[in-house]
Amino acid sequence: MREFLKQLATLFGVGRIKKAPGTWGTLATIPLVIGLNHLGPFYYMSAVALLLVVGTLACHIYEQDHEGHDHKEIVIDEVLGFLITMVWLPMTWQAILIGFVLFRVLDIGKPLFIGYLDKKVQGGLGVMLDDVAAGLVASLIMQVLYTQTNWLGSQITVIHSGSVGVKSLSLFFAGLV
Predict the structure, then answer these.
(1) Which H or E run includes 37?
(2) Closest CA to 141 of 98, 78, 97
């Protein structure tokens, strides 16, 4: 089990790519994002919750066996962050491209509270938490783009007057429409 978790931390060797392992880890996540999106919101969110727990444990074990914090080889945090970025979005090439770039910029630059979390929280949770924060910020920006523009190749229409629009939006997010 311990060896499996260490392999998971590196996404089964993707993190051992010498140049830009975090970017490769994020790229390798794209098929997972598309597959989980096709399964529906329940499975998507269940995978995110499970990966948060298992990924944190995997990072903790990897750090126990290798000295230091947040090794470059660990990329399971990028997997979780990109999954969070792409929650409830259309699977268009535009959404994937913008989500990918946005998440990588936030993950690398660590603006706002993301950098604070990266420096202050130690252990496996610390490895995962800054990428979760980057994914949440990216997801919020992506949701604004999705509702306010057609940059993602698709746009959700929100009717601002009357309860019909609110009900339609609620059904959409529940995956019933």
Answers:
(1) helix 21-39
(2) 98
State the residue for tokens 């994020």: 26
Q: Write down the H helix ranges in 66-122.
A: 76-85, 93-109, 114-120
Report CA 50 to chain centroid distance, whole Å.
13
pLDDT tens column, 44-56: 999 999 999 999 9
pLDDT band at 161, cuts 50/70/90? low
Could you tell me if 107 and 128 are in contact, meaning their C-beta atoms sit under 8 angstroms apart? no
Among candidate residues 59, 55, 5, the one with its CA nearest the CA of residue 32: 55
Residue that has been written with the tokens 């994002």 in this structure: 33
Q: Which residues contact 151 (CB under 8 A, 6 or more apart)?
A: 94, 98, 145
Residue carrying the six token digits 């910029």: 105
Stated pTM of the model: 0.85
